[in-house]
Design brief:
The structure holds two protein chains of two kinds. By secondary structure, chain A is an alpha+beta fold. Chain A is built from nine helices and 23 strands. In chain B, a hairpin with a 2-residue loop joins β1 and β2.
Chain lengths: 441, 963
């Protein structure tokens, strides 16, 4: 279990220190600072063991969050907690920065008291927390005894993430499918590794205690239905129509509100949603990924002092869609002494501080291609070391899900109140972003 | 140094550095650096040439980036270009970059060396200094190779500026420290020594560091510096504080120089010249007098400088150890410091007094401070000071104050720091033994010691007390009584139990008369500790029990009961179980006579050096306890217990070769395949065969446990071993390979190679018969004290079997420690057809094998020849020629000798001269040889001169047989 939690600024000064167990002493704070934050060599492992004490850290901009324990804990649990903690703090006061943490430090201690008990994670649902931990001062007479007991029963009850009696004039529902696509490709265009990690994020403003049901084109479900009905040929026709019709999900995790038993038995996702924003599920796919862009590099070394680079990018999706925020990063050798760039589209610039040529294109439609060529002058050096040729990386944003995931339905039932599925206004959005999208050159 | 003009401030550099300092994170810093590197690359790449200023600026930035921990792989060329600039700042930055980032890149090194050469040759003193600093900072072997010849010239040249001389001296010192073989002073020696007379104090200070270092290596060559140093010292000491102006530091004239001079003098024995000596004594007296004067300033720097000189002077006095008057004065001075406020001074005083205590002249004077030192031991706050105090007490201890000091140390031990306890324990043990007049006092002390600091009492200490008790009849009874009393304490240390078990087992009968310590009471007391002890102690106690059965038959039943119980006879520890089984059987089967013989009292141990002392020496390193040599101490103690294996076989009790000294000393042999029970039954068998009247001598250790050696010893052949066969030494003086020995059976070939002071010798043993040699062994021994001159170790023992017609190879590693005249002996034994052959040969190892040839010109040769003109350094022989006097033959022989044959040196072309250096680990001995043949008279005159008389003599003898 977590013995303590520390938050440091970039200098290693302690902003927040909360110790839950006696086996964690004050010197643990310094041990982490000395061995990780101020380490001579950058520490890349998120878990560090110092004197039989384990430190799990995540870094958000310049802020370090470190969970400390002396026991053999589930590391995945600790990281899940740390990320959740980040989410909670973001939900309360926005960006996690030194200033924000200093301004909200009473709040953070309050939160830490609530979401960790003797080192065991408790309720970390922002919606629920916000009902009794607020940023503004609360006058005690404001809460009646009844309300207080309600909070208690809600927090300790079966549906801890939603309180009763919520009422909206407009029942609205927002659903975002956010995916990040990761790729490593050989210079010849062979896919070496690719996967998509996606999230389904919802924002719900619904009255009462509604029961929701979410459906997507999960292969298992589709296959089951295909077998159940006689839609064998129907499936075929669909295949011909819009590419592929179902996707294979490698693994997925759900928000605590989803009834897992139902998912296990029927593969259906049904839940009573929390109020406000939350992440319904997370998933990962590795098969049949639509790669939105293809990068074709061409690097030629002309003697010892010159390098010619030509990079072509091709967009590989429907021409009606527009990709945005495209950025191609072409690494340059460490002994670069000058760069000339010519590109047809967008803007390209040699950034010496990052040892790379950065090429930015604002928008690009599908099934197009664009090209950049650069001449790099090199300074002869004493070192006989060859340039390692790091891969060319890319960033972009596309308005579809590269995994091929489609939302089939999202149904809302609220038997007690008089609104039906049709009255709920639903919004669905797909955003595909690049994760680590690299092509070797 | 030219003033740095305002324009040279390098704003760009300052901006860059402040940018880096302001970076919030490591990533930001790396970004900034990458940007700067790209900028510098583009600038260096640029087609238009950079001016000196920007070059300097960029090289500076690169240097800064490198110092931040980033790799720099360009810009070296630009830095080298800066070296040829005429501006001081540019040159300086260039040199800085080179000294920090130099790598052995061949082409650049050549350019750099060239630039340095130019600067050294320039008449500009600043440039020369920069170049010298660069050489010293790099200090690599390549640098030494390139400039070792040049720098001495600059150092002694008349027109060199003082500041350059200073740099040159220090640079040379640095090169000498890295590669002493390349820096040869040779002809410069005397002129370097005369730098001590230089007008400029800075030059003298720099030169003296160099001279000190050089004279530590070859004291003889720099002997002349003593008188110069003394006169310089006396001038400084007698000068008024205002005379030396710049070199007066807080009213003390030239303190650093004085300290260095005093240190230099410590490399040499007291000067022989009376006048010089008188002057030196006067100086030392003045220094001691000055210490008594009231301080001229209250500043700490003043007293520090003064005391530094004083302590250095005291070290010199101690080093000379010949002036009783000065020694006593020094001691008194130190005595004052013992109560000084400054902790550092007290520490230094204690430390110096330790060495003073060992001098016969000042020992008494040191002793007068005993109270202060004891007080220091008790009250000092700093543990290192207390440690020194303890050292001093140990050093000043003699018979008169031993009791007091030991008592104080014992009482201090109770509160002593853990870090020094073990050492204190050893010291107390040694002092108690060394100065024991009354052995009951000794026993008391050691038992007290074990009681107070049992954990820190090492094995050696309690071995020793037992040795002494066993060897001295008069204390045995007292020891038994004291031990018995000590054991009554409810919690006593395991070491105490060991001593108690041993002594009561041996001498329990001496106190058994008293009903308070009747045998049964003794046994119960011992046995009450049994279960709290570790296995070795329990084993010892079991042996004590069986001794009890012998001493007190009335305890037999009780003890047998104990031995018989499951926790003993079925103990999971093999050793304990075996003892229990064997002792039980022994006590039940053997008759009282047998028991009495087997379990007789331990015979006295042979006299040996105390093993505790050896341990203390090992702990502190050689030298640290030189004071404590037991020279005049008594050696009543006797031999060390754990080495007592060589007692005669008539000793009825089984001997104790194992280090776990115990009563019966059953060898704790590793359990053989048969389990302990098997061993037990074997024992029973032995007894049942031998019967109760088994001769005591048969019950030896090996017979007890194993019968693997039961085969009767092979009859030795009665051939008298042949004495050492002298090798025909003259045959191998000039060659390294050949046949060393040959008879009808065996041929020994030899092949050897030497390098510096190391050598390797391959011995080939050829079996000339068709029958195999068995039990073939060869050992190399160094008779007498040869051991300390040469090390000769076989890499591995030879194969014991040599087939007929086969050849066996053995490799000897040889290391020459210092010069030697005798040769190691090779002893070969083997059995040929049942007859034992024994052969002893002298190895053809002569001092000339370690020659390193030295080439030199005629002038050099004769200068050195003259330097070695003392009568004992020369050895000469005139002898008749035994062999051909052909010139070429002689040449070949002289070359084989290992020296360099110098052509065109001697004015007479018939004569031969050679030069070489004998490389030994301890020192290098330069040798010069001159051979003058007289064809008409068929005679030679051979003259050898070397810096060491024994070497000249030995070489002369060796060579005379050659021609």
């Amino acid at each position: 279990m977590i013995g303590g939690l520390f938050i440091y600024n970039h200098k290693g000064e302690v902003l927040i220190s909360r110790v839950y167990r006696d086996d964690i002493g004050r010197n643990a704070v310094d041990a982490f600072r000395v061995n990780v934050i101020h380490a001579r060599q950058q520490v890349r492992s998120p878990v560090t063991n110092i004197a039989r004490t384990s430190f799990f850290h995540v870094k958000r901009s310049n802020i370090w969050l470190a969970a400390v324990t002396k026991q053999n804990v589930n590391a995945a649990m600790v990281f899940e907690f740390l990320y959740k903690m980040c989410d909670v703090m973001t939900a309360y006061f926005g960006k996690i920065s030194e200033e924000n943490i200093k301004n909200n430090f009473v709040l953070i201690y309050e939160l830490l008291d609530e979401i960790l008990d003797f080192g065991y994670p408790q309720n970390s649902e922002t919606g629920a927390l916000k009902t009794f931990i607020t940023q503004q001062g609360i006058k005690s007479q404001h809460h009646t005894k009844e309300e207080q007991s309600q909070i208690t029963s809600q927090v300790t009850g079966q549906i801890g993430w939603r309180r009763e009696g919520i009422k909206y004039r407009r029942n609205e529902l927002f659903l975002d499918v956010l995916e990040s696509v990761n790729l490593l490709m050989s210079p010849q265009g062979q896919v070496l590794s690719a996967h998509v990690s996606g999230r389904v994020v919802m924002k719900s403003y619904l009255s009462g205690m509604p029961e929701c049901k979410f459906g997507m084109n999960d292969k298992i479900v589709i296959d089951k239905q295909g077998k159940g009905g006689t839609a064998d040929d129907a499936g075929k026709s669909e295949l011909g129509g819009s590419g592929k019709q179902s996707i294979a999900i490698d693994d997925c995790t759900f928000h605590q509100c989803v009834r897992l038993s139902k998912f296990d038995s029927e593969r259906s996702i049904s839940f009573i949603p929390p109020d406000g924003e939350y992440e319904l599920m997370r998933y990962r796919t590795t098969k049949d990924i639509i790669l939105p862009f293809r990068v074709i590099p061409l690097v030629r070394e002309v003697g010892r002092t010159k390098l010619e680079v030509k990079v072509v990018i091709k967009s590989n999706f429907k021409p009606s869609l527009l990709a945005q925020k495209i950025e191609v990063r072409i690494p340059t050798p460490l002994n670069t002494s000058g760069v000339q760039v010519i590109c047809m589209k967008g803007k390209a610039k040699y950034k010496a501080s990052e040892n790379a040529i950065v090429w930015k294109i604002k928008r690009m439609a599908g099934m197009k291609e664009s090209q950049i060529s650069a001449e790099i002058e090199l300074l002869p050096t004493n070192d006989k070391k060859k340039w390692a040729r790091p891969p060319i990386s890319m960033n972009f944003e596309v308005p579809f899900a590269p995994s091929g995931l489609k939302v089939r339905y999202l149904k809302v039932f609220e038997p007690k109140l008089n609104y039906s599925d049709h009255d709920v206004i639903k919004w669905v959005r797909y955003i595909g972003r690049s994760g680590i999208y690299e092509t070797r050159c | 140094m030219p003033a740095v003009s305002k324009g040279d401030g390098m704003r760009g550099l300052a901006v860059f550095i402040s940018d880096i300092r302001n970076c919030k994170s490591k990533e930001a810093e790396i970004k900034r650096i990458n940007k700067e590197l790209a900028n510098i690359r583009s600038k260096f790449k640029g087609d238009k040439a950079l001016d000196g200023y920007s070059k300097k600026k960029y090289v500076c930035k690169l240097l800064f980036i490198f110092l931040l921990g980033h790799d720099i792989d360009f810009g070296h060329m630009e830095a080298v270009n800066l070296l040829s600039s005429n501006k001081y700042t540019e040159k300086q930055i260039g040199y800085l970059f080179i000294s920090v980032l130099v790598n052995s890149n061949s082409e650049l090194i050549r350019l750099i060396n060239n630039a340095i050469k130019n600067d050294l040759a320039s008449r500009n003193p600043t440039f020369m200094c920069l170049a010298l600093h660069c050489i010293a900072n790099v200090g690599s072997r390549e640098m030494a190779e390139a400039f070792a010849g040049e720098i001495p010239r600059i150092l002694v040249a008349g027109d060199t500026m003082d500041s350059v001389k200073q740099s040159a001296a220090l640079c040379l010192l640095r090169l000498y420290k890295t590669s002493p073989d390349l820096v040869l002073m040779g002809e410069w020696t005397s002129r370097v020594v005369h730098l001590l007379n230089d007008q400029h104090m800075g030059v003298v200070t720099a030169a003296i560091s160099l001279i000190t270092c050089l004279s530590q290596k070859n004291p003889d060559e720099f002997k002349t510096c003593v008188s110069l140093a003394v006169s310089r010292l006396s001038r400084i000491v007698s000068s008024a504080s205002t005379d030396l102006q710049d070199y007066t530091y807080y009213f003390v004239p030239a303190p650093w120089l004085s300290c260095k001079l005093l240190r230099l003098l410590q490399c040499y024995p007291p000067p022989e010249d009376g006048a010089v000596k008188g002057r030196l004594v006067e100086c030392l007296e003045t220094i001691l007098n000055k210490a008594q004067e009231p301080p001229k300033s209250k500043k700490v720097q003043h007293s520090n400088a003064k005391n530094a000189i004083l302590f250095e002077a005291i070290s010199l006095i101690i080093h000379y150890d010949s002036e009783p008057n000065l020694l006593v004065r020094a001691c008194n001075q130190l005595g004052q410091f013992l109560q000084h406020r400054e902790t550092n001074l007290r520490y230094l005083a204690l430390e110096s007094m330790c060495t003073l205590a060992s001098s016969e002249f000042s020992h008494e004077a040191v002793k007068t401070h005993i109270e202060t030192v004891i007080n220091a031991l008790k009250t000092e706050r700093d543990v290192s000071v207390r440690q020194r105090a303890a050292d001093l007490l140990y050093a000043m201890c003699d018979r008169s104050n031993a009791k007091q000091i030991v008592a104080e140390m014992l009482s201090y031990l109770e509160t002593a720091d853990y870090s020094i306890r073990e050492e204190m324990v050893l010291k107390v043990a040694i002092l108690a033994e060394k100065y024991a007049v009354d052995y009951s006092w000794y026993v008391d002390t050691i038992l007290n010691l074990i009681r107070i600091a049992g954990d820190y009492v090492s094995e050696e200490v309690w071995y020793r007390v037992i040795q002494i008790v066993i060897n001295r009849d008069d204390v045995q009874g007292y020891a038994a009584k004291t031990v018995f009393e000590a054991l009554q304490a409810p919690a006593c240390h395991e070491n105490m139990v060991k001593v108690g078990g041993y002594i009561l087992g041996e001498f329990g009968n001496l106190i058994a008369g008293d009903p308070r310590s009747s045998p049964l009471v003794q046994f119960n007391l011992l046995h009450s500790k049994f279960h709290l002890c570790s296995v070795p102690t329990r084993a010892l106690l079991l042996s004590a029990y069986i001794k009890f059965i012998n001493l007190f038959p009335e305890t037999k039943a009780t003890i047998q009961e104990v031995l018989r119980c499951d926790s003993q006879i079925r103990n999971s520890d093999v050793e304990l179980q075996q003892r229990a089984v064997e002792y039980l059987k022994l006590s039940s089967i053997a008759s009282t006579d047998v028991l009495a013989t087997v379990l007789e009292e331990m015979p006295p141990f042979p006299e040996r050096e105390s093993s505790i002392l050896a341990k203390l020496k090992k702990k502190k390193g050689p030298g640290a306890v030189s004071v404590s040599d037991l020279d005049e101490g008594k050696r009543d103690g006797g031999g060390e217990l754990n080495g007592a294996g060589e007692r005669g076989p008539e000793s009825s009790v089984v001997s104790t070769p194992s280090p776990s000294a115990d009563l019966l000393g059953l060898r704790s042999a590793p359990p053989v395949g048969s389990a302990a029970q098997g061993a037990g039954s074997l024992l029973v068998d032995v007894f049942s065969e031998a019967g109760p009247l088994a001769p005591a001598s048969g019950v030896n250790d090996d017979g007890f446990l194993s019968s693997e050696d039961s085969a009767p010893p092979l009859p030795e052949s009665d051939d008298p071993p042949c004495g050492p066969v002298p090798f025909q030494s003259f045959r191998f003086v000039c060659k390294n390979n050949g046949v060393l020995f040959e008879n009808q059976l065996l041929q020994i070939g030899i092949k050897s190679e030497y390098r510096q002071n190391l050598g390797r010798m391959y011995l080939f043993y050829g079996n000339k018969t068709s029958v195999q040699f068995v039990n073939f062994t060869s050992t190399v021994s160094c008779p007498g004290d040869l051991q300390s001159h040469i090390l000769c170790t076989p890499t591995k023992p030879v194969d014991p079997l040599v087939e007929g017609g086969a050849q066996l190879q053995q490799v000897l590693n040889i290391e020459c420690l210092s010069d030697f005249s005798d040769a190691p002996l090779l002893n070969i034994r083997f059995r040929y057809g049942g007859a034992l052959q024994n052969l002893t040969l002298k190895l053809p190892l002569t001092i000339n094998k370690f020659f390193q040839p030295t080439e030199m010109g005629s002038q050099d040769f004769f200068q050195r020849w003259k330097q070695l003109s003392l009568p004992q350094q020369e050895a000469q022989k005139i002898f008749k020629a035994n062999h051909s006097m052909d010139k070429e033959v002689l040449k070949a022989k002289l070359l084989g000798l290992g020296m360099a044959l110098l052509e065109n040196v001697d004015p007479n072309p018939e004569n031969f001269v050679c030069a070489g250096v004998v490389q030994t680990k301890a020192q290098q001995v330069g040798c010069l040889l001159r051979l003058e043949p007289n064809i008409q008279a068929q005679m030679y005159r051979l003259t050898l001169r070397s810096s060491k008389d024994t070497v000249s003599k030995r070489l002369c003898d060796l060579l005379a047989e050659q021609f």
